[in-house]
Amino acid sequence: MKIAVVGTGYVGLVTGTCFAEVGIDVTCIDIDQRKIDNLCQGVLPIYEPGLEEMVTRNVDKGRLHFSTELAGAVQDCDVAFIAVGTPPGEDGSADLQYVLAVARGIGEHLSSYSVIVTKSTVPVGTAAKVRAEIEKALAKRGESIEFDVASNPEFLKEGAAIDDFLKPDRIVVGVSSERAEEVMTKLYKPFLLNGHPIIFMDIPSAEMTKYAANAMLATKISFMNDVANLCEIMGADVNMVRRGIGSDARIGTKFIYPGIGYGGSCFPKDVKALIRTAHENGYDMQVLRAVESVNDDQKSVLFNKVSKHFSGKLKGLKIALWGLSFKPKTDDMREAPSLVIIEKLLVAGCTVSAYDPVAMKEAEHLLGSSIAYAKDEFDALIDADALLVVTEWPEFRVPNFAVVSRLMKQKVIFDGRNIYDARELKELGFAYHCIGIQT
Ligand code: UGA
Description:
Layout: E1 2-6, H1 10-21, E2 25-29, H2 33-40, H3 51-60, E3 64-67, H4 70-75, E4 79-82, H5 97-109, E5 114-118, H6 126-141, E6 147-151, H7 161-166, E7 171-174, H8 178-188, E8 198-201, H9 203-234, H10 238-246, H11 267-280, H12 286-298, H13 301-309, E9 318-322, H14 337-347, E10 351-355, H15 360-367, E11 372-373, E12 386-389, H16 401-407, E13 412-415, H17 422-427, E14 431-433
Parallel strand pairs: 1-2, 1-4, 2-3, 4-5, 5-6, 7-8, 9-10, 9-12, 10-11, 12-13, 13-14
Helix pairs in contact: 1-3, 5-6, 9-11, 9-12, 11-12
The chain binds uridine-5'-diphosphate-glucuronic acid (UGA).
The site of uridine-5'-diphosphate-glucuronic acid has 20 residues, from helix 9.
């Protein structure tokens, strides 16, 4: 089989590389020449555990190619994936100009039957627009080549993307012909060996499934953050409540960890887009509007605790921050709660010294010299009046607290991810604040 993947962002790169890993001939296309040159050298535009080695291995084996030439890649491919960005417009709706431009390009170069698959997260109805765009381009050429469109949303988590792709919980594919279903079954067969199901459905349902999945997960998180805030007021312990409800299989143990709000490039964008799509079609997604508003407030919760602890006298304090990325194992800073926290600290007159195991460069792009970048987690603590744990990187979980307390000016910890034990920290002489537990 031969496939083309257009767009070498997060989704496209992981998708193309993982298909190459099972022996399929893959060409990844991008219009950015520098990105393609780098990829040919094994230099990746993103950090994702294990991906660099996998790219290099498959390039060396001659199964994975990178190019800026759409024509050569789509001419005789069995499947072409569209995996370009759908950035949110001003009003929150997904901007489809890149997706449709690729569809046009495919229509201009297609030479035999192919399945054109949308992999980017796109609103319901997009595959139909892709089909129309390809038909238009074919008509212009005076050609009537047969093709199908399909929707195959991805459910990869940054930081665990390779495992998610190779061992998926499920694969969702929206199709409108048996021929396309056969091609997609053949393509995904290597990933179905351990009983992971491939679920075929109509195209609009597949498109909606992606949004509904992310919206449901975001809802779980905002719900838990709301419960955590109430636990704190009422003297309950959200960790206990979480374990108590999570053991009910109908609720489940995952994605009910309270914290400082969800971030990243997916939940915030997709929740907004779904609210917007509904609104445009005369429906009000009331629950999702609340999910979004709880999340906006939650990003300020840690700062509010700092302000309360120091009775509003924040000017001149030195604050250490552990973690900048929106979650561990990624350098992604998009919609990261750290950005909101840092802005509030700076406005209040604090100085900030931050450390993140991989997101330092990314942070410097966004924040410049407004904060100090520590060389490691302990360097960030020197003379600090407080430590804020913002991202739960594994290396922050069991620090040497004797060193921590020696380095800090004041022994105060604000734990935005509930990774420490309140009783232990109190015994060690720290003032300790976390989410959803009175301290
Ligand atoms: C999310 C989905 O989990 C993927 O299935 C989906 O494919 C992806 O979006 C996408 O649409 O591309 P991702 O954004 O990489 O993946 O990250 P998650 O691991 O889902 O975390 C999202 C946010 O939720 C993070 O800020 C995290 O800290 C927060 N979170 C997660 C919590 O606050 N509590 C939890 O219990 C779990």
